[in-house]
Amino acid sequence: MNKIGPGLGIAVMAFLTSINLQSAPPIPDDYKIGGFAVGCQAYTFNRFTLFEAIEKTAQAGGRIIEMYPGQKLSKEQPDLKWDHNASDEVIQKVKDQLTKHNIRAVNYGVVALSTNETEARKVFDFARKMGLYAITTESDDALDTIEKLVKEYDIKVGFHEHKRQPNNAKYKLWDPKYVLSIVKHRDRRIGACADTGRWASSGIKPLDAIKILDGRIISCHLKERTVIGEALPDCIYGTGVTDTKGILAELKRQGFQGNIAIEYENNWDNSVPDVAQCVGFIRGCTAR
What we know:
The protein has 288 residues and is of the alpha/beta class. The protein has one domain (27-286): Divalent-metal-dependent TIM barrel enzymes (TIM Barrel, Alpha-Beta Barrel). The protein is built from ten helices and ten strands. The strands form two sheets. It has an eight-stranded parallel barrel with strand order 1-2-5-6-7-8-9-10, surrounded by seven helices. A two-stranded antiparallel ribbon has the order 3-4. Strand 1, helix 2 (50-59) and strand 2 (64-67) form a beta-alpha-beta unit. The radius of gyration is 19 Å and the shape is globular. Mean pLDDT is 93; it is low at 10-22.
């Protein structure tokens, strides 16, 4: 019987350790509400700085935040924009703000991921530094690069969708069937960022889309709309036609472990009370 020599054994252990160091941690249960990691997409507070968005997420009762590139960092540094090119010093300041308000950063996007591996790697390195669960993108042309990096970093990637563009046949991400077609034979860490509002704007019932993408939903931008087929402002969960309760039940059935980011595009200057009601709706739906 062949034995592994001490040199090879050390090399194997080093390799396994390196994989462990590169693995993205799951979202802890301490940051979940009714079994879901619930909080805000920082874009909800795009008229404010990232520091304020973190604070407002906490005020609304959220536990996690999904950041986006380009937001002003803070009132003290209004000319400094937050993105994956941030220095270690700036990253530490953001981490300190998150700790102060007991909010966990779990996702980042929507961000372009280049077909150039070196450029795409910058986003994954940033995600690792922040301890993120996932990255959100619309770069479906970079699938090969994305698949290589999700395997290396163990960080998930979800394809986001904007509404259907009737005059642009090349834009297909609005269609959940298209998203499924491009991810179903790829690594399981690649899937969809389910934006229920964008689906509604495209004339798709969000619950139908959630079911189409069964098992491939990485994250969710959860919106409630009053009409299917029109791009209307968001409304508080339970007051529209999106069937948020049904969506939550279906995500639970699917064993969804990603983040639910409340992306509330309405009442921009004073949305915390509305967002708090959305958090309360989720809490009520998931109460045991």
